Model the fold of this input.
Amino acid sequence: MTAERVSRWARRHVAVGALFLVAWQLAALFGAPHRTAVTLGLYGFVLHTVVGKGYALVPAYFDRSLALPRAPAATLPLLTLGAVGLAVAPTAPLPRAAAVAGAVCWALGAVGFVAALGWTVRDNLSGAETGTGEANAERRRIDRLANAFVPVVFAYLLAGAYETVAVTAGFPTLAGRGAAGATHLLAAGVGALLVFAVGFRLLPRFLVASPPAPLVAVVLPAGAVGPALVAGALWGGVWFRAGAVAESVAVLGFALVFVALFRRSPRRRVGFYGPLLGVLAGVAGVALGLHFAFVGAVPGGPLAHYRLNLLGFLGLTIVGVAYQFYPPAVGTFPGAGDRTALASLGCLATGLGVEAAALLAGIAPLAAVGRLAALAGAGLYAYLLLGLFRERYGTR
Done:
């Protein structure tokens, strides 16, 4: 019963994340303030999904059961209301106290998530106990290394939660770079680093292939130090450049690992194409970041960088992995199946590519076409995921 409760509320986090993905693409298409779009995409879609799957995966990866099984039910409304409050604040003349309330609400949800998982793994913080069975004994070295970086993700989430409240309320900040500092702490320090750490455990098993161990040993440390350097030294200086290089090494290394796994794998499932497209977008995104650090910004570059990394690297990877956990082909409702799933990935990736190229070329109407295609992809993803949840689990 306890496991079912955790699974049920973890799914609800993922489902709410899918709705935020649609809202994010609508906001981008209709020209909502940049801060609203970032909030819907990062605090809403990415981090809701990360929290949901974190509750489901992290305890098992540390050979534990979630110590506070009611935590997923408690954090969902906090994170949802907080993300909505933060998203609405830039669009309406609300009192500052309302925006602060949204930030505090979201931060409480984030702290609750870290507290629940931290208490669960408190006696195994290094991740030495991996829950890896004898059939996968050769994977234990990489599993332990990946586990060791999960507490770093928790630290970034706490730092990003504080930074969000501090920036909104006018308190002293950690990074001193405003909302952009909080965004980088959460997107790179939580989203990307958790993709690396969990991905090195999850994806090799999905694809039935082994990752190149030396690359794993490079990606994780680079992905751990890069976000702090970038967030603390945004827009210039030697530390900003060092952080940009570290993030680029991490994303490029992860891309090489996944491409190697994809080529070695005897399997070809629709979900695998999400991370494949995601790492390609991520490489393009960090290439722009390197250009900012060593050459300078270009017109349309910052917006393209944000979309390539948040919707491309994180978004496409999340959507693809979700299709692996929740296969559309098992559904019997209209449109359920791998073709619709592939269409959603195709719309997201094509729309993103068109939008990024249009932003860099300064062709606004073409960027809108790309955003419309991405909206179609987000809608298909939400339709498949929510339809499958309703069909298989009903109201549970």
Remarks:
- The CA atoms of residues 89 and 192 lie 26 Å apart.
- The radius of gyration is 20 Å.
